[in-house]
Amino acid sequence: WKACSHFAALSAMGFDNLRLGINLSPREFDRSDFMERIQLPLEEFGVPPQLLDIEITESLLMKDVESIVARIQRLRDTGIHISIDDFGTRYSSLNYLRRFSVNRIKIDQSFVRDLGLSQDSYAIIQAIVGIAKNFKLNVIAEGVETAQQLEILHELGCSEMQGYFFSRPLPFEKTLEFLKTTPQYALG
After folding, report:
1. For residue 146, what are the CA distances in angstroms to 56, 113, 143, 153?
2. What is the arrangement of strands in the sheet containing 81-87, beginning at the earlier edge strand?
3. What's the CA gap between 3 and 29, in Å, rounded?
């Protein structure tokens, strides 16, 4: 609820180029009322579903596959976007990308951390970006901490990133201050 409330407040202030990402644990995903728990705050605060990005882990996809496929499809039918978090660290399978109707994969920070140090990380990220493009998925790199990582990720075709290079996690008031003073977000 609080995330939707803050997101709506930011939108009302004119910050309309933001998306809201929420991690959903396997336990939350298994709740019988999970759709209501997602839809009610969206409705209450007027957050368009297409601006919500539910992040699920690969381990969630290993459970009751048919039930998970149906739940993900229900979310997608409302316009909500689905991301596979920490992609490449557990049971990565191209079958997930084919069967589960996801919008985005998030490259795990362990690969990003080793960029510039390990040719293997470079090759893995290059492969993930290539696969994502072929499946028409967006890619976001997690854990960007240096300008060198940023440059390499851009070179590899990754246009969405998150990490301490941009900002540490912030409470709402500090987030608002950050948005107001960061050129790509600042209201003009």
Report:
1. 26, 9, 9, 11
2. 20-23, 52-57, 81-87, 104-107, 138-141, 160-161
3. 18
pLDDT of residue 100: 74
The two structure tokens encoding residue 102: 């996801």
Neighbours of 96 (CB within 10 A): 18
Residue 8: exposure state from Cβ atoms within 10 A (0-12, 13-18, ≥19): middle
A 10 A CB-CB count for 10 gives 18
Contact at 8 Å (CB) between 100 and 123?
no
Give the residue ranges of DSSP H helices in 46-89: 65-77
Neighbours of 148 (CB within 10 A): 13
DSSP 122-133: HHHHHHHHHHHH
Mean pLDDT of 173-178: 92
The model's pTM: 0.81
Sequence-distant (6+) residues with CB within 8 A of 11 are: 18, 47
DSSP string, 30-46: HSTTHHHHHHHHHHHHT
Model confidence at 93, pLDDT cuts 50, 70, 90, reads low
pLDDT digits 0-9 by tens, 108-161: 899 999 888 878 889 999 999 998 898 888 999 999 999 999 999 999 999 899
